[in-house]
Amino acid sequence: MTPGTAAGAPTATPRRLVEVAPGVHVATAVRYTTTSTVLVAADGSCVVVDPAVTPGEVSGLAAAVQSAGRRVHGGFATHPHWDHVLWADALGGSPRWATPACAAVAARERDALVRAAVDDGEHGERPALRTVGRLTPLAGGVLPWSREVVVVPYRAHAPGSAALVVADARTLVAGDVLSDLEVPLLDLDAADPIGDHLVALDALEGAAAVHGVRVVLPGHGHVTDAAGMRRRLAADRDYLEALAAGRAPDDARLADPWVRGEHDRQTAALRDR
Ligand SMILES: [Zn+2]
């Protein structure tokens, strides 16, 4: 990051957004291949999902939204991890929705989220830290917006997780599941992390079937199609079943040292329960 590119600074370079489905634009960050999604309605308003990850990238996302002439109608956080609850002043003051459980965790753990953003995300002591984790609980099943976006809550990876289905674009914005790069990363505070994750995969598969989803976007990794989603579901279930059985999973994603480290950490935690 270049010094002086604080979130909200007018000098931010607009990030490249790729339209992966009609009105679904994705920016991919360097760190953790983190995706941020800008959903655009016919009236030009937009909803920004999980803006991430460095201050330069978050403000660059805001610059891209502004240079395209979009009006930010709201935000959405898929789950309460620091790299999914960031914001920039330049994105405006509209509500940033999340499930009630996600919003509650983000409020309760805000100090830790801010610390993680500073330690892991190069955010430093910048004004935008005021906005970390300030989420608005959304009780309903759709975003309050002119475009139909269905909220699909699931219990995996973190408390209060949710995916979004953009109905007319037949697109699933999945949150931190269904990644081509990461094995299932469990919510280790849950009573049954593996069982929950398997149920969540079933729920996402069901929602994808109901809405005829043909584009799937993970929180970390690359966009895929319906066949790719089936492959990732199979790989994730294989991984989880190996973990449940105490076997070493045969999973190509474990070749990545960071993923291997997270795998080792969660297998140790499961063993020690
Ligand atoms: Zn996460």
List keywords for this structure.
273 residues, globular, 5-stranded mixed β-sheet, disordered N terminus, alpha/beta, binds zinc ion, 6 helices
Structure characterization notes:
With 273 residues, this protein is α/β, with parallel strands linked by helices. It is 32% helix and 19% strand. It contains six helices and twelve strands. The strands form two sheets. It has a seven-stranded mixed beta sheet with strand order 1-2-3-4-5-6-7, with helices on one face. It has a five-stranded mixed beta sheet with strand order 8-9-10-11-12. Strand 11 (215-218) and strand 12 (224-225) form a beta hairpin. The structure holds zinc ion. Zinc ion (ZN) is lined by residues 79, 81, 84, 157-158, 176.
Give me a quick take on this structure.
The chain is an alpha/beta fold and 273 residues long. It contains 6 helices and 12 strands. The radius of gyration is 18 Å and the shape is globular.
**What is the share of helical residues?**
25-40%
Helical/strand content category: alpha/beta
Q: Which strand order does the major sheet show?
A: 1-2-3-4-5-6-7
Shape: globular
Rg, rounded, reads: 18 Å
Q: Element order, helices and strands?
A: EEEEHEEHHEEEEHEEHH
Q: Major β-sheet, in short?
A: 7 strands, mixed
Could you give the topology of this structure?
Elements: E1 18-21, E2 24-28, E3 35-40, E4 45-49, H1 55-67, E5 71-76, E6 96-98, H2 100-108, H3 110-121, E7 136-137, E8 149-153, E9 162-166, E10 171-175, H4 193-211, E11 215-218, E12 224-225, H5 226-245, H6 257-271
Parallel strand pairs: 4-5, 5-6, 6-7, 10-11
Antiparallel strand pairs: 1-2, 2-3, 3-4, 8-9, 9-10, 11-12
Helix pairs in contact: 4-5
The chain binds zinc ion.
